[in-house]
Amino acid sequence: MALNLIDAGYRPVKVGLGERDFFVDFESDRGISLEEAKAFAKNRRVEVQVKERRVKYNGVEFEVELEPAGEARFIYLTNVSTHHPDQDRQYVRIRGVAFETEEELKRYLDWLREAEEVDHRILGERLDLFSFHEEAGPGIVLYHPKGAVIRNELMNYMRQINSSMGYQEVYTSHVYRAVLWRISGHYSLYKDKMLLFRQEDEEVGVKPMNCPAHIMIYKSRTRSYRELPVRFSEFGHVYRWEKKGELYGLLRTRGFTQDDGHIFLAEDQLEQELRSLVEKTVEVLSKLGFRGDDVRVNLSTKPDESIGSQELWDRATGVLRKVLEEVGLKYLVKEKEGAFYGPKIDFDIRDSLGRWWQLSTVQVDFALPERFKLEYVDRGGERRRPVMIHRAIYGSIDRFMAILLEHYRGKLPTWLCPIQVRILPVTFENSAYGLNLMRELTSLGVRAEVDAGEETLSRRVKRAYDDGVPYILVVGKREVEEGTVTVRGRGNVELKGVNVQEFESALLKEIGERSSEQIVLLTLKGK
Fold it and tell me: Does 19 share its domain with 147?
């Protein structure tokens, strides 16, 4: 393809490999369409030599990331985009796949159709939720407005959970002096994943975790036993320099948001707090569709590289084990897979495809309070060392969002959907009624929109289903005259002549309860 571009007067700069495709970059001031790109996706035999990852053809030299292997007789292009290597140049990137036989291409296209239903990367692009860009860098995600809605709904739910458990939300910076990371132990035990640099003759580091900052807040004044437990929460954005080959959509990025929480407490408060955390984690996972045999609990013990004495590790591991047994949860022991500062309970969930993902975590830490010399004043006026719990119920909001997208195949529960109701006027004459419905729903806090496009009603219905909209309201002449709506839900369920107020009441109940079921359909069908 690169040689065909050269023959057409373009200047390719690179041929490389993506996660599951190839790409060709060429320099151009204007973009091209996918249809235009297809003109260059033609197989022909040309003898070229690859020397030190460079190819020269007709006076144009470009980089190659792969060695030629086989004959790419059947080429299928998937995408065309643009990016900027610097402020003065624009590259056009053509992505595609190539196979030696038509049968191999057919198998790939069959797989692609199946993947479009479950792969969160494909769903995210199709539903306009998020994107990754060459200029921004590998593993750096940009959330679009609809993706931000899902993130915010997940955070709002966790804020409600945190408030019910007595957390105080904080906000902390992204960059700290290296001395903080030396005290915490991250500098020596987590340095390979940290972004460290020098500024004005001082070394600083971008945070891979939020705990040292929360420790600083705790340490900002003298604490009394009467205050304990002190619970801080934060939707903290952290950065971990994962290897390029390990990056995978939202499941593994270099920047992500944790629903982080840290509790500072006396040791005799530990069991009760851990029990509450474990029970709440099970409750939240169940609410989001993961329960029973689809949740697996692990107890992870001291790794080879760690901080703190063996005696502290034994005490921390013992209390975690006791809480799991008292709550009645079956668990597996994962030897040497704890955090470097303490043992932990991890919750793995199984998605609709049978895959397991590690999400929630609860960690007991005697070591960091010791390293940071944390204290509280006990009942007798003596200074004591508190214990620390690290917890994240979602784990990473980004990863959790990816798993939800794949688990529900893009058809998220109504409360999470960027668009909860789409109104389809049958004809232009019904548009005013549709707009009034939208305004009424929006005033109730429902995310609603009108699609009064020129396409046929069936095409607009299909688009709404493809967009993952849970409720479609069809309004025609009859609905306008009767002041009703026709409700269409998932699974091609259709209910005609529905009273608008009854629909709104059932919808608000479904959203308010954060149900994973379509309560509206169940309620209205029962009337």
Answer: no
